[in-house]
Fold these 2 entries.
Entry 1:
Amino acid sequence: MVDIHLEGVGHSYDGGRSWALRPMTRTWRSARAYALLGPSGCGKTTLLNIMSGLLRPTVGRIYFGDREVTTMPTAARNIAQVFQFPVLYEGMSVYDNLAFPLRNRRYPKAEVDRRVRTVARLLGLDDQLHRRSRRLDAGRQQIVSLGRGLVRSDVAAVLLDEPLTVVDPALKWTLRSKLKEIHRDTGHTLVYVTHDQTEALTFADEVVVLKDGAVVQSGEPTELFLSPAHEFVGHFIGSPGMNMIPAEVTGGVVRVGDTTVGRAVGVDGDLPAGPARIGVRPEFVRIPAAPAAPGLPARVTGVDRMGAYHLVRADVDGHPLVAKVDTGSWYAPGSLEYFHFAPDRAFLFRDAVRCGVLAAAGEAERP
Ligand SMILES: Nc1ncnc2c1ncn2[C@@H]1O[C@H](COP(=O)(O)OP(=O)(O)OP(=O)(O)O)[C@@H](O)[C@H]1O
């Protein structure tokens, strides 16, 4: 297994008029499980196809370890691929399909048998091994395709493009954890394309979030949740997404309308005066019963009872604010409540990029 390094890699499908993938430099570390997450059209498949060799990038170079592979075809890159839809020899048994990549590489017979049975057991295919693949439903066929992608231990990387799309939703949960188990067992470098945040967050060591052909943030799932570096990450990850409230920074003090909500601590020191947006996840918005400090006044517009929690919806000068609260709480639509943000969990954004943190206001700065 080797690191995969992209040096200034970008792609344009229209002769350079626009970038489907903006030039990027990035290393995908050996034995790590990555999820490439983003909405439809953001460039996920383009990036994956460049790594696999199905697509030659318009600019840049690709290295597998020290070896430059930019112009090498897929077959020369020693990778395994799993696509959205099953790619199988339908006339072969499940066993032979799983064994195919190993026999092709001349693995010893006993090793072929051991690996096929291990992967089959992990994917719940043990009792299907002697069935013809064409007799399986589409979901099971896709699981066999997944098995074929994971069966070899000596690949440079396994690249998966939305592999669970045709699989039954109930089975997806099981497969995601199986995939994690297989990853732990084999230590493959995995790059897993998905537009589904749950899929990405439950499976990956590191999630790479792509928007309009560029990476806006990459990190461990908890980091993306707790510390979004871009407004898009705040919206795209989390349910519901992060609240965004327009504010004004003056002399280091942050105000929403006439209310002082805290101090601005800039990423690079003091934050210059001017407009900013406060981003805070509903999980970090509190509505104290008897607030010690005044808080941000907002009118409750509705309460969604979600079973395990309630979502309190409110309005701040025409902007929505949502708080995720315990089921025991009770708020009446139309009432005025005072909202607080958990310390260090509310961030300031300018041009969609995080520029600071909202810190608690000192006593002297409160109105
Ligand atoms: N063969 C092609 N020719 C021209 N434009 C293309 C081609 N393939 C993709 N594109 C464009 O490049 C951009 C990125 O597409 P890509 O398929 O990589 O995105 P994606 O994130 O994988 O989307 P999806 O989840 O819908 O597959 C899109 O604007 C798409 O329309």
Entry 2:
Amino acid sequence: MEFDYDLFVIGGGSGGVRAARLASAEAGQKVGLAEEYRMGGTCVIRGCVPKKLMVYASHFPEEIKLAQAYGWTVHAGSFDWKQFRHHLHAELNRLEQIYTTNLEKAGVEIHHQRAVLKDPHTVELDDGTTFKCRHILLATGGAPSFPPLEGAEELGISSNDIFLLDELPESILIIGGGFIACEMACILNGLGVKTTIFLRGAQILRGFDDEARGHLADHMASLGIEIHCGTSIIEMVKVDSGVNVRTSTGHQGTYGKVLFATGRDPSTKGLGLEEAGVKLGRNGEILVNEYSQTDVPSIYAIGDVTGRVELTPVAIREGVAFVETVFHGRPTPVDHELVPSAVYTQPELGTVGITENEAERARDAGGEDFEVYATSFRPMKTAFAHTDDRVLMKLIVGKESRKVRGCHIVAPEAGEMIQLAGIAIKMGATKEDFDRTCAVHPTMAEELVTMKSPVR
Ligand SMILES: Cc1cc2nc3c(=O)[nH]c(=O)nc-3n(C[C@H](O)[C@H](O)[C@H](O)COP(=O)(O)OP(=O)(O)OC[C@H]3O[C@@H](n4cnc5c(N)ncnc54)[C@H](O)[C@@H]3O)c2cc1C
Ligand SMILES: NC(=O)c1ccc[n+]([C@@H]2O[C@H](COP(=O)([O-])OP(=O)(O)OC[C@H]3O[C@@H](n4cnc5c(N)ncnc54)[C@H](O)[C@@H]3O)[C@@H](O)[C@H]2O)c1
């Protein structure tokens, strides 16, 4: 068969862009890529990047309060959302252009339109053009999902909409207790929006270490964020000042906006997967093997659309491993073990490895026993300002192996700290390796190498 492309990538997000660039520039393949919205995908346009810039913006009121305690005569004044949004989008445009230019420089042919599969070797663009492709990589990511509640999509907004708001509401109700719910709650609260969270479960951030979740929830509440656990929304009605909401617990209230942060669905609708014979899992994710290959040998999938670990660095690594496997003849399975991550709340939660609960379950199932080292303290910077802010550092250590199997940090800049702890833990460091590492003083992170006795 004659092919138009050695590789065609559908989706110009974190995973797709990296795979396309490497396959073209390093492996010398003829590569095409289709992006239906904006180059850079979720992370650059409506995820990590604009979110982190909003995190920075939201920190200033607390910093200014601290500055006052340190002797500065400063006042927060007011926040100009429109000015910030203008600057934010100028920055996103700049990044989008860089992504496009880098792909072009690498020799990738970009098609700025939607693409779908026709068969195992054919893609079709929106304008009807078809291409024969030796390999096809699906990197279409995911999109916010709304619960099946009447009015949710019409009256509610998703994280996509936050970055485009004309003005910040006076109040917001956030539904959900995951990454996006907690980050957006801290951001919007920091920017002066009265913020309430409703979540179904008993605590925010299911799946994270229980002690870390409790510590963070307390801190978020102390900042003025109202968190209602065990609460589901059952009715939404549009009113002049926003949306009136009724809950399963009998609560009724009106909020300027209602943000659904209730998870994301893999973007597979109308992609032609059935026609091509690609199989989906229970949550609509594309099923792949350890090399990101689907059941159809010429079709691979990476990133959020595969529902494995939904993080940008993971999508990128899956893209790199795909190119190694398919174009360099070096079969490279993707390593999803011990992926560090951070939730950019106030303060941040950094985590790598197992939680105390997981360690308990593993032990009860006949696995290794474990020790918990933990400390909670008032950090020097904010203690000076007489705030009650506390930091939590926690290590889960294998009792026999002595390996540090989990690390959980709730602290300002925990994302930066967990990146470095993650290296040691990925290398298999033991508690004694941590102990013989000299502290850097005075820092918060020094507690990671000075915890002497297990607390449990
Ligand atoms: C609010 C938010 C904050 C986040 N913060 C972080 C963070 O701090 N750190 C982190 O690691 N991760 C974060 N994430 C997750 C991260 O953004 C994703 O894991 C990552 O973007 C996944 O990359 P991807 O390549 O799989 O897909 P995406 O980046 O979603 O890219 C998929 C692309 O495919 C395009 N597309 C879809 N279908 C088609 C089609 N048929 N034809 C053509 N184009 C198509 C889409 O328009 C999109 O541009 C965040 C996500 C959100 C929503
Ligand atoms: N800092 C980061 O790295 C970062 C930030 C944002 C997002 N992400 C990635 O994006 C993914 C998606 O984030 P997310 O916050 O949308 O998902 P999530 O899975 O973290 O949270 C979804 C929340 O919605 C709740 N929920 C689901 N259905 C519901 C319903 N019908 N009614 C009420 N509540 C419901 C869940 O219980 C959960 O609390 C994350 O898993 C993460 O991998 C990462």
